[in-house]
Amino acid sequence: MRWRGSGFVVLGVWWLVALVVAAGVAAIGLGHIRVGGQVVFAAFVVAAVVRLFARPARRAGGLTVRSRALDVVVLLALGIGVLVASATVNLEPGGADRPAGRTGLPTP
Questions:
Q1: Contacts 24+ apart (CB under 8 A), 17-24
Q2: Has keyword Membrane (predicted)?
C-alpha cells in the first residue's frame, strides 16, 4: 500500500476526527444519545483545536477548507449544536411535561 500521495496523507488528522464522530454516531444509534452527542462534540472541539494550531495549515489535512478562523468557528458551532441537541432531546415517549391520563383528544 502506498501512503505518500494517498488519501491518508492528504486528509491527515481528518481520519481520526471522522473515526471519533463515527463512534459517537454509533453510540447514538445504540440508544446512548447523550453520551454519543458528547463524543461527537469532543471530536469537533479537537478538530477545531487542531485546525487552530496546525502550522503550516496543510498539516491539518482535510480540516482545512476555508480560512483558519472560519473553519474553527464552524467546527465549534457544529459541536455546540450537536451537544445542545443531544442534551435537550426528550427521551421519554409520553413526555414528562404532560399530566397523566390526558391524551389531548376530546371526551365523548
A1: 17/43, 17/44, 17/46, 17/47, 17/50, 17/63, 20/46
A2: yes
Average pLDDT over residues 2-31: 79
- Total number of domains constituting the chain: 1
Residue 90 pLDDT: 85
C-alpha cell at 100: 397523566
73 part of a folded domain: yes
Residue 73 is placed in which grid cell? 468557528
The answer to the question of residue 69 being in a domain is yes
What are the pLDDT digits (tens) for 39-69? 999 999 999 998 888 877 667 777 778 888 9
pTM equals 0.74
Q: Is it the case that residue 106 has pLDDT exceeding 90?
A: no
- Domain residues for 65? 9-88
